[in-house]
Structures are given as C-alpha cells and as structure tokens.
C-alpha cells in the first residue's frame, strides 16, 4: 500500500528517487510523523518535494491517494500501521519496489544502509532523546511558548492534512503556467559553458601559475596571468515577426528581453524572419529593406558552434513551407522552399531548437499541419518556463 | 505574557516549518529554505541557534564565492613572501592554512548551527562541489595530508532566493521547505511579538492596507514583513489616527522603496 503512494507520486510527475523514499521510511520509523496524517503530509512533502513549483502536484496526488480517509484526524488502523512501521515487512517492500522496476542491487544496498542508520539513531535517541517523542521538553513541536524557544504560529493545530492539501495554495507556483522574464532569464542561465579558453583582452592574476613559475625561478618572483573563466556559449536568436505572431508579441518580447538581459553569452545575435526562413533575413523586426541580409551570409559567417534558437508559431500555409515562396518585397520567387532552408539550418547547426508560443498540436489539422511537419524536423518546445528550460538543456548537449 | 520574551528571541514559525526543522535535525540532513524575501529565512537559523543554545556560524554566499573557501584557505602568497625573507615557520604549511566557515563548524567542539545564506548567488557548480562535504561531514587537506572530520554533525540551514535552480543531486540530499508569505492571521502574531500594546484599531487598519498594497499588480517590489514593521513603527510614533491610514497611506516610503511603486500606489489610491 505504501509503495503505491510512491508509485502515484512518480506517476503524477514528481521526480522522486529511491534514495529519498528510503529517507522517508527512515523518518517514519523514527516516528517523525507523530502518528498523525497532517504531520505525515508535511514530513512527506519536506523530504520528497524539492521545489515549490511541485507542491501542487504533490497536493493533488495526496488528495487522490487519501481520498477515502474521513475528514478529521481519525486514521484507519490499516493506514496507521504502515505509517508507523514501514519497515516491518521488508520482503514485501522489496517485492513492490522490484515490481516498479528498480534494480534489485540498489534496493538492497539502500535498505541495508537504512537499517544501519536507524540502529544508530535508536541508540542515540535513547540516550539523549531531546528531539523526538519528548514533545513536552522540546523547544520544537510544541504549541505555545517555550523559554527561549520558537513559537508556533497562529495556525490551528486541528487543521487536517486533507484540508491543507485541499486548499492547493501552491497552484500559482506551477511552472507550466507562470511565465515572466525572470523565469526566462533563469532558463537562459542553463546555457552556460564556462571555459578559460575564451580569448578576452582582460586577464587576471594567476596565483597558482605565479607560484609554480616563482619556484622554478629559484624563488625570485615571476608573475603569471591567465584568462578568466568566461561563458563560451554563442547564441543566435531567430524570431518570427508579424502576421500570426502579433498575438504573441508580448510573450516574445519578454523572451527577447530575457535573452538580452542575461548578458553572459559570449555572443548573442538576433535576426528576424517572416513565417519561415527563406533567402533573406532581417536585423530589425520591422523587416525593412535596409536591415535585410542574405541567409547565405549568415551561414557563411556563423559556424556550427553557434547555438540557434528559432522562435515562431510555425503556422503557415502548406505551400508557404513546402513550395518556393513568392517574395512580395522583391517580386521574385525564392530559390528554394522554406522547408529546404530549415533542412540546411539543421545540417549546419547541430544545436538547433524551435520555440513555439503555441502548444504542439495533438492531431494534424489544416492549421497545424506545417507545425507538425517542422516539429518532425526540428525539436520543438512550447514557450513556457518549462518548455524553454527543456529547450536550453537540449541546446547544451549535441543531439545524436 | 507575550511581552515577557521580547528581545532578541523573536521568531514566529508555522507548524509545518517547525516540522521540517525537526525532520532535518533528526535525519541529520541539511534544511533548504526557500521563500520570498522578507519571510524570515535567515532569521530562522538565528532563532534555532538561540533556542537550542548552540553557536551560529554564518557563511554568506556571494556570486564570487567558491566552495573551496568554505573548507579552508591556503595562504600561499604569504608563505612565498615569508620564504623570501627566511621568516620562521615557513616549513610548516599548517601555519598558512585557515579554516573556512564549514571547516570551522566541523572543528567546533560542540554542535553548532551552520547557516549557508543565499546559496543560489554562487556559481551553478557550487552546491555540487559541497555534496560530499555535507554528506560525509569531512574533507581532506592535501597540503598537510590531514582529514578534517566533524566532531559533531552541525545543523545545516541553507537559504535560497531561487535566483538559480539548484542541481538535482544536491536537492535530493536536502529537506526542503518553502516559507509562504504569512497570512493576515500569522502576521498579527508576528507583530504581537514585535510591538507591545499596539492599538487594536491601528493594527487592523495597517494590516488591511498592507495586504491591499501587496495585492496591487503594478508594484515592482512588494513590501515584506520587515517593511511592515518599520511602517507600523512610523505610524505609531507619528500619532496617525487609524482612520487616516487606509485613506492616505502615510509614510508610504517605509513600505515601498521604488519611486515608481510609490507613484503607482498614488494612482491606485485615487
């Protein structure tokens, strides 16, 4: 039964490892949940969940799992017995964990480690015993005041875990809904590869090098300098401008601001396109003639070391993607189709992802067809804090 | 009754925070505290050390802090300098090794509370560099071939403002707690700890205005607990009538630190 809770939490998207689960078992064995469901709720959360963005997922899973437990602190004996003695039935615990697909060796090692720790803890706490169980004399865990102690706040102790979980106070922290510039900046910080190989004009004093050189020099001071650690990542941002993208202009400008603000890139270049990449790109979002550059110029001047982020909704007419495109500005057809250009980009830049403000469609329709075609060629992520983070992670590692 | 313990021992914590503190101490794992600025993350460590009668060692992290500095620093430059003048003690490297905050906590004869403040300010690699040391509570100094092992495992409190994401491997070893901004009810008990005999109507009006200001979307930086305490202090000594508080928000400068925010507040008041 206990393991099923573990399973449910993982199924609901909480990334919990065996290690944390063992820590929880240890805590239960030590009685840190005080035989109450609400304390179990907090205990479990503090050990298993490491990000307030995941609190809501946890609340939901908790509600789902304990939904049959009556309102109030009356816990059925069955639940109580596994809460109080999670390690009594080790063989069945092993079976359950094996069934979940964890390697047997890992489980055994961890369980042994856990037993060791609990043995130690038992000895310690029988001697001193000022943490657990002795709530009367402990400065913690006591409602009211303790001399020189910490006061438990105005919250009623009678609130049940179910009502706390039921409030789902942490809904707002969910990463898949909140988007602001700060979170984008955080995502961009993932794009970092520190190196002292980057050639810059500034140099810093190299203490270790100086000492080594001085020793080699018979003890006479010989000063050495070295290049400081700098981010080696070079980024090209290609943004769709105008048309169906107007709707997302705020979102895109937030993204753009975040990229510019996180000024830790070695180089950041921004170009704009309309609908899809064709023969020409623009340096300015207004797509005026004077900011026009040849796409080939870009390919000639920026090699595969650059990481490329394409931002666009990928929504266009099928012909605009797959056929040669008529250019209104020049009155000529483009040399090759947008799709062919994307293929060239894909080959030229091994680190290439597409960020889409629209969610990836679940099925192909007239309006989403091009989106699906492009996403099969280039990894596509949605423009949310979560999506951007995944995209950045992919940009950091060359995809096989 | 409440005023009996005023002074430095002033900390109001929610039940779930206390539970997390207990869990972390019992399981001997670092406690990672996240939360909005002004929710008392740093104060918590101080309160724990005071209530347990243990020394507090604070390690303030800056963007340039390296994990190594927390363990020990080997002053090679001084040694080199001394060697040029043939000073005494140059042979003894231990002479040039100074313990960092973590080393200090390990070497202490009694259990201490170690606060690693604002860990997210440092490089991305910083937390991972401390994994082994925090897990095993020991480190090795190759220069003098000595292992420093904690005599008593310190109680480790780590705070983060979520400016950078912390690595998974590090998070898995921590007990995590997110401090919510206090509700009006909780705020009332916090204020009761800080003020003696505060006029009831003033407190009510101040709290009402405070939470209203926090709810304004236009603000860049929302006021937090410490600003509220300053503000009430100002209101109290300024002899402002409680009716005025909500309509005029006097001394708004104590609550809002940015000119633009004060301007926006003015617009919202109209």
Commentary on this structure:
- The complex is a heterodimer of chains A (400) and B (270).
- Helices cover 42% and strands 12% of the residues of chain A.
- Chain A is an alpha/beta fold and 400 residues long.
- Chain A has 2 domains: 2-173, no CATH class; 233-396, Rossmann fold, CATH 3.40.50.
- In chain A, the strands form 5 sheets. Chain A has a 5-stranded parallel beta sheet with strand order 7-6-10-13-14.
- In chain A, a hairpin with a 4-residue loop joins strand 11 (326-327) and strand 12.
- The longest helix of chain A has 24 residues, at 104-127.
- The two termini of chain A are 41 Å apart.
- Chain B folds into 2 domains: 7-179, 3-Layer(aba) Sandwich (Rossmann fold), CATH 3.40.50.300; 184-269.
- Chain B has a 5-stranded parallel beta sheet, sandwiched between helices. A two-stranded antiparallel ribbon of chain B has the order 4-5. A two-stranded antiparallel ribbon of chain B has the order 7-8.
- In chain B, strand 7 and strand 8 form a beta hairpin.
- In chain B, helix 10 (200-215) crosses helix 11.
- Chain B is elongated, with a radius of gyration of 23 Å.
- Classes of the chains: A alpha/beta (400), B alpha/beta (270).
- Strand 1 (151-152) of chain A pairs parallel with strand 1 of chain B.
């Amino acid at each position: 039964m206990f393991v099923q809770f573990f399973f449910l939490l993982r199924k609901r998207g909480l990334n919990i490892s065996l290690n944390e689960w063992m820590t929880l078992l240890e805590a239960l064995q030590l009685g840190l949940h005080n035989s109450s469901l609400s304390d179990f709720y907090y205990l479990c959360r503090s050990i298993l969940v490491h990000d307030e963005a995941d609190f809501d997922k946890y609340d939901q899973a908790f509600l789902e799992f304990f939904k049959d437990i009556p309102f109030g602190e009356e816990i059925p004996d069955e639940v109580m017995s596994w809460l109080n003695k999670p390690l009594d039935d080790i063989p069945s615990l092993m079976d359950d964990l094996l069934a979940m697909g964890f390697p047997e060796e890992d489980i055994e090692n961890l369980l042994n480690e856990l037993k060791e720790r609990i043995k130690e803890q038992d000895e310690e706490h029988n001697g001193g015993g000022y943490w657990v169980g002795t709530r009367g004399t402990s400065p913690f865990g006591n409602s009211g005041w303790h001399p020189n102690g910490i006061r438990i706040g105005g919250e009623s102790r009678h609130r049940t875990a179910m009502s706390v979980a039921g409030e789902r106070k942490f809904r707002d922290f969910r990463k898949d809904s909140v988007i602001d510039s700060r979170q984008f900046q955080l995502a961009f910080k993932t794009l970092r590869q520190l190196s002292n190989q980057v050639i810059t004009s500034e140099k810093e004093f190299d203490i270790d090098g100086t000492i080594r050189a001085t020793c080699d020099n018979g003890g006479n001071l010989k000063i050495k300098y070295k290049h400081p650690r700098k981010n080696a990542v070079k980024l090209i941002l290609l943004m769709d401008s105008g048309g169906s993208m107007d709707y997302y202009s705020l979102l895109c400008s937030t993204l753009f601001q975040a990229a510019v603000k996180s000024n830790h890139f070695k180089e950041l270049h921004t170009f704009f396109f309309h609908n899809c990449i064709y023969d020409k790109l623009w340096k300015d979002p207004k797509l005026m003639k004077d900011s026009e550059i040849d796409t080939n110029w870009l390919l000639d001047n920026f090699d595969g070391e650059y990481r490329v982020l394409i931002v666009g909704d990928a929504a266009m007419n099928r012909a605009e993607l797959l056929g040669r495109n008529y250019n209104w500005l020049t009155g000529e057809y483009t040399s090759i189709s947008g799709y062919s250009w994307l293929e060239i980009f894909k080959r030229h830049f091994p680190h290439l992802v597409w960020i889409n403000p629209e969610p990836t469609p679940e099925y192909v329709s007239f309006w989403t067809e091009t989106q699906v075609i492009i996403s099969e060629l280039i990894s596509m992520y949605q423009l949310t804090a979560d999506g951007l983070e995944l995209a950045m992670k992919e940009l950091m590692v060359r995809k096989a | 009754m409440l005023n009996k313990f005023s002074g430095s021992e002033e900390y109001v914590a929610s039940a779930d925070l206390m539970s997390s503190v207990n869990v972390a101490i019992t399981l001997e794992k670092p406690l990672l505290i996240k939360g909005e600025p002004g929710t008392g993350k740093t104060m918590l460590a101080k309160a724990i050390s005071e209530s347990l009668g243990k020394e507090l060692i604070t390690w303030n992290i800056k963007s340039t802090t390296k994990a190594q500095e927390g363990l020990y620093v080997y002053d090679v430059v001084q040694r080199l300098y001394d060697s040029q003048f043939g000073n005494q003690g140059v042979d003894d490297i231990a002479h040039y090794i100074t313990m960092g905050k973590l080393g200090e906590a390990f070497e202490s004869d009694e259990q201490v509370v170690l606060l690693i403040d604002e860990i997210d300010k440092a490089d991305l690699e910083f937390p991972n560099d401390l994994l082994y040391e925090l897990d095993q509570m020991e480190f090795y100094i190759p220069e003098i071939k000595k292992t420093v092992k904690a005599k008593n495992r310190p109680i480790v409190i780590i705070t983060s403002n979520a400016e950078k994401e912390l690595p998974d491997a590090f998070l898995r070893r921590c007990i995590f707690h997110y401090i919510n901004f206090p509700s009006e009810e909780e705020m009332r008990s916090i204020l009761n700890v800080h003020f003696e005999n505060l006029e009831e109507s003033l407190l009510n009006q101040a709290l009402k205005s405070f939470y209203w200001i926090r709810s304004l979307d236009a603000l860049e930086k929302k006021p937090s607990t410490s600003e509220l305490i300053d503000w009430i202090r100002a209101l109290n000594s300024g002899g402002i009538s409680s009716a005025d508080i909500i309509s005029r928000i006097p001394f708004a400068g104590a609550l809002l630190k940015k000119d633009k925010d004060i301007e926006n507040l003015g617009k919202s008041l109209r």
